[in-house]
Amino acid sequence: MERANISKIIGIVSLGCAKNLVNTEQMMYLLKQAGYTVTGEIDGADAVIVNTCGFIDSAKVEAIDTIIELGRERASGRIGKLVVTGCLSERYKGEILAEMPEIDGVVGVGSFDDIVEVMDSVLQNGEKSEWFGDINAPVSETKRVITTSKSWAYIKIAEGCDNQCAFCVIPGLRGKFRSRPIENILQEAEELASHGVQELILVAQDSSRYGIDLYGVQRLPELLTQLSAIDKLKWIRLHYLYPDEISDELIDVIAENEKVLKYIDVPIQHISDRVLKLMNRRGSGDEVRDVLRRIRAKISDVVIRTSIIAGLPGEGDEEFKELCAFLESEQIERAGVFQYSPEEGTPAALMQRPDSDTAAMRAETLAEIQAQVIDHFNESRVDSLITVLIEGYDHGRYYGRSFAESPDVDGYINVFANELVIGEFYDVRITGCSDGEPVGVLK
């Protein structure tokens, strides 16, 4: 197809998780290489791409509401064409165009690399089109336009998932678990570091299994060791380590490697043996407790993040009480609490669902427990000296993150100082808390 759209402007809206953002950044790179102008603004755009999440109800609602609003903008002439990509497209392929006529193109998660052909077709031919590639294909090695920060970026080390949790649709949307070759990850990390990225955040559906499909063994410890040899990298952060896959070797590498942050995201979902079995999660509550004990025993001052689901079908009062007691006793520093969302096509959706009001109250109770845990954690940091990566300035103070804060989920440390450089690291003395966040001054 002739390159007739060199001057066209493409607006980008990215929803959902960090892994989805990586795909958005890859599409932006391909479009820019093809001559399109790519922007985060939609006003006057010849076309808008919205990269969607379709994981749970709240994500679907956000995606649909965004599409509807953009459809209104299309009808008013504020934007030209509208293309929907990502997990919502994959989940409801064959339905979206019929249900939402304002959409001009639909792209599944196996066709992100086809985005230039999609936009050429939509803009030149004016025909509605659907693109759905193989969701089990090797992980894309397309370059990216980094949109997060000059100083930090996500790096995807694997795609897909084989865990088949009873409540989760991800394997059907993202395909089987596939690791990227270690040399490809290292090459991308080197390039990111050469452009000023100092913090790499490793993401995958199950990072702890990295390498098992390519090499027959888990190679996350080796990957961390090789990444840490990149001189310009200062921090390496780990997300999504499943508890049953965390080996002593991995714990030792995290404990001993100065560049690997003492921050571990371990999604446990529940602690009751019965509920874990209903969730089709590997391991027992005691095994979860054991891995957390091993982590804390070997990694000084470690910060653990987890995710909890309240209200799964089959969760009774006793199982809920056990979960509350666990959060109170374990004092996990960071926890995201979610009300169970029945997702069509999952085994859990076929179970008898508890009363939604009960599930909502349980989620609220857990959130209140966790709020007290976070307050206690923040108070324990007062008078400590912490290295902070400054990310911005607002309302008379700078804000940034330490090893204990991951972007978008854990808040910030507010720093009172004069003329700090955004994107640089500073030693900060924590002096107190304000609105649930630590406050500090320069050393």
Q: What form results from the Cα inertia axes? A: globular
| Low-pLDDT windows of residues | none
Provide a count of the helices.
14
Percentage beta strand: 15-25%
Structural class: alpha/beta
Give the fraction of residues assigned to helices: 25-40%
State the major sheet. Answer: 6 strands, parallel
Work out the radius of gyration: 22 Å
Instruction: List how many beta strands DSSP finds.
Output: 19
Could you give the distance between the termini?
Answer: 59 Å
The overall pLDDT, averaged over residues, is 93
Strand order across the biggest sheet? 2-1-3-4-5-6
In short:
With 443 residues, the chain is an alpha/beta fold. 35% of the residues lie in helices and 23% in strands. Strands 2-1-3-4-5-6 form a 6-stranded parallel beta sheet, sandwiched between helices.
What does this molecule look like?
There is one protein chain. By secondary structure, the protein is of the alpha/beta class. Helix content is 35%, strand content 23%. It contains 14 helices and 19 strands. The strands form 4 sheets. A 6-stranded parallel sheet has the order 2-1-3-4-5-6, sandwiched between helices. Strands 7-10-11-12-13-14 form a 6-stranded parallel sheet. Strand 3, helix 2 and strand 4 (81-86) form a beta-alpha-beta unit. Helix 9 (220-228) packs parallel to helix 10 and helix 13 (317-330) runs parallel beside helix 14. It is globular and about 60 Å long. The protein starts with 8 loop residues before the first strand and ends with a strand.
